[in-house]
Design a protein that fits this description.
Blueprint (H helix, E strand, L loop, with lengths): L5 E6 H11 L8 E10 L4 E9 L6 E4 L1 E4 L1 H13 L3 E8 L10 H18 L3 E7 L4 E6 L9 E3 L2 E5 L3 E5 L14 H7 L1 H8 L3 E4 L3 H13 L3 E5 L24 H9 L9 E5 L6 H7 L4 E4 L4 H13 L4 E10 L5 E11 L14 H8 L6 H5 L14 H20 L10 E4 L4 E2 L47
Parallel strand pairs: 1-3, 1-10, 6-7, 12-13, 12-15, 13-14, 15-16
Antiparallel strand pairs: 2-3, 2-6, 4-5, 7-8, 8-9, 10-11, 16-17, 17-18, 18-19
Helix pairs in contact: 4-5, 6-12
This protein binds zinc ion (2 copies).
Length: 478
């Protein structure tokens, strides 16, 4: 299992720009600086690279090894300090393959300047190496005592775009050996893809029918680290849809019942399942979500979706979202059942722009009014917050569609990571043409990309008092 306490993350655009600069045609090493922001999870600190600071003429020397002039470091430091960010040094090993170690010169350039960088920015100096095969490796130089800056290796470097690519430090996040229980899975896409896939730390926000199935898909596929986030309890009217619950579970926390169900079904040699009895918008659960590499959004309310949407863009953690909508006519007969699946990530439109939540209702929910029966009563009959119909089979289909989206983004068979946003109609039995697009021009989220904890938007808060422990308001299919 992974011991990843440090990570670095960047968008595919930053990765492409860095490759173009650092992997030279003449095969010599090169370097540049970058501005980063912290993304503080409960157990993992990520340096989210916002942008590169490329050298101007005369600021660095390329001579087999590359070195920088003091003026380049000073300019980069003042840019980072002005932006309230940290500073990273990026350099290339053109002949390297995979995760890279450091030469004596590398250590001198990074550790030797860690004090100056910490003094100017208040943050550890971060070093990244790009190997000739496109693999990244990274480390933090963290102050442990006066004038002492030891190296803390990252466990992963994540590149986030249409595709999610994670570069692993095999020392801290060793590739697991496939188990006998995973033979059929591994033979579908090969050991290398399996090792990259199951080392992802997965989070499931919402332990209802869709979340329960997605969590089971993760642990059966062989994922080693799965976080479950939900504050709700199992009730009798959930039993037609929760694959993990029986009558004996009524009254238990959903995440506890789900974790107990998943443990014997995990196929990894070691699997850590972390039940978190909180809403994703509560600070502690939000920080646990920031420990993840990929998140499944199985919440139906606007505040949770809003928080996950921010995480996708500011913290570079892709959010695999979906939803089910069922309609009946005045006679109570089924007229429509639709489910959708899509991923909020860099290069794709956000959950707000595709209409998955109404930002106006986020504040209503924060104030506790979504739990007010009078408020719900006053909504139009076809409002998604009012519709309570759902069926196990619809949940299975939606969970499956969300997992297919996740697999396409990570495995990218035939280099096709993005099937587009999908909407399926049960009545009529057809999938709408897949939608590709971008955020609206006035959307806030593109301006928050890779800003991490420095994004300036606070999305967490206390759970409304009417949702206090033990009292669950099942206004939605769960
Ligand atoms: Zn080097
Ligand atoms: Zn948007």
């Amino acid at each position: 299992m992974s011991r990843v306490a440090r990570s670095a993350a960047m968008t595919a655009a930053v990765d492409a720009e860095a490759r173009a600069h650092l992997l030279r045609r003449d095969r010599q090493e090169d370097l540049c600086f970058a501005l980063w922001h912290p993304s503080c999870g409960a157990t993992r600190l990520t340096a989210v690279i916002e942008r590169l600071i490329l050298p101007l003429a005369g600021e660095r020397n390329v001579h087999g090894n590359a070195s920088f002039e003091a003026a380049f470091l000073e300019r980069a430091l003042s840019e980072a300090a002005a932006a309230g960010g940290g500073l990273a040094l990026l350099h290339s090993h053109p002949l390297g393959r995979g995760w890279q170690g450091m030469s004596r010169d590398d250590i001198a350039a990074e550790q030797g300047n860690a004090g100056a960088v910490f003094g100017a920015t208040g943050r550890p100096f971060v070093g990244l190496t790009l190997a000739g095969d496109g693999s990244w490796s990274a480390r933090f130089w963290e102050r442990s005592a006066p004038r002492t800056y030891p190296c803390a290796w990252c466990g992963t470097v994540r590149v986030v775009g249409d595709r999610l690519t994670v570069h692993y430090n095999d020392q801290l996040a060793p590739a697991p050996r496939p188990t006998g229980a995973q033979m059929r899975t591994v033979s579908a896409w090969g050991e290398a893809a399996q090792a990259d896939l199951v080392r992802l730390r997965a989070g499931v926000a919402g332990g209802g029918s869709v979340g329960g199935l997605i969590a089971e898909a993760f642990v059966r596929t062989g994922f080693e680290d799965v976080a479950l986030i939900d504050f709700d309890h199992v009730e009798e009217h959930n039993l037609d849809r929760l694959q993990y619950a029986t009558r004996d579970d009524i009254g238990k926390l959903k995440v506890e019942a789900l974790a107990a169900h998943l443990k014997p079904r995990a196929t990894a040699a070691q699997c850590r399942i972390d039940p978190i009895a909180a809403a994703v918008y509560e600070e502690d659960a939000f920080r646990k979500a920031l420990d993840c590499d990929v998140l499944a959004s199985c919440v139906d309310r606007p505040w949770g979706r809003h928080v996950l949407n921010l995480i996708a863009y500011a913290h570079l953690i892709p959010v695999v979202d979906g939803g089910i909508r069922v309609r009946t006519n005045r006679l109570g007969r089924l007229t429509a059942a639709d489910w959708r699946a899509h991923i909020a990530t860099i290069g794709r439109p956000c959950l707000q722009c595709i209409g998955q939540y109404d930002p106006g209702l986020v504040q209503t929910e924060r104030e506790g009014n979504l739990d007010d029966p009078w408020y719900i009563e006053g909504l139009p009959d076809d409002h998604p917050l009012k519709s309570r119909q759902n069926v196990f089979t619809f949940s299975m289909a939606c969970a499956s569609q969300q997992m297919l989206q996740m697999l396409a983004m990570t495995i990218a068979p035939l280099d096709q990571p993005n099937p587009g946003a999908q909407l399926y109609h049960f009545v009529g039995g057809f999938m709408e043409p897949h939608v590709y697009g971008a955020c609206h021009a006035e959307c806030l989220f593109p301006s928050l990309i890779a800003r991490g904890d420095s994004c300036g938007v606070t999305v967490t808060g206390k759970r409304p008092s009417s949702m206090a422990a033990g009292q669950s308001m099942a206004t939605l299919p769960g």
